[in-house]
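2024-03-11 09:14:02 DEBUG pipeline.ingest accepted 1 chain
2024-03-11 09:14:02 DEBUG pipeline.ingest length=243
2024-03-11 09:14:03 DEBUG pipeline.predict start
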Amino acid sequence: MSVLTKKTITRAPCECAPRHKPSFIKRALSALAKDDSGLALTEFAFIAPIFLSMGLMGSETAYYTITHMQVSQIAMQVADNASRVGESDVLTSKKVFESDINGSLIGAEKAGDVFDLFDHGRVIISSLQRNSDDGQWIAWQRCRGAYRHTSSYGVQGAGASGTSFPGMGDPDSRITASAGTAVMFVEVAFEYQALTPFDWLDGEVITYTAAFNVRDNRDLTQIYQTNPASGVARCNTFSADRA
């Protein structure tokens, strides 16, 4: 007869290191790696400065273009006004007074208030006439503005005699006066002031000219003075103040 004997097997204790649960930091990093809920915000944070810079540069370019247009319009306005001013008299030629010229410059001041024309620029009005030798002559010149700029086409007295003075304006399109009349030649120079921190255009000098023939029979002998006397916008004075 066979007898079954029950044997008990006991295992030796495991000497391997105990297993630990992942630390809090590891679990947090793992969860963060799988979380894409803030992806759009992160992308915006990288892209926003680029779009902001492009917008500012576009605004600066647009403002620079608008300033060009405004300076050009002011040159035309002043030349047009200067060609019309004067005291009318049916018996004599129209006389121009210093106050008339000052009024034309005040008009430029109002038009250029938005960008401080006379603080950073200068307006020069010249009366181009014929001299006694039938040559071109700058009979008088009036200026206003703090920006240190002299006329690029001649100063008062240029061409007083002889015929060597060619007139005013660019060489390929000279402006000349006809006998018995005058041309109001205006030059406006403005040192551009940047609108945004992108100032690569800051300090650029914008210059425009305009010319209008006088509209009436004008007394060309001089600029008359009122009583009491008006200020004189002399070209050796560099100031934004009114004469």
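2024-03-11 09:14:41 DEBUG pipeline.report The radius of gyration is 39 Å.
2024-03-11 09:14:41 DEBUG pipeline.predict end
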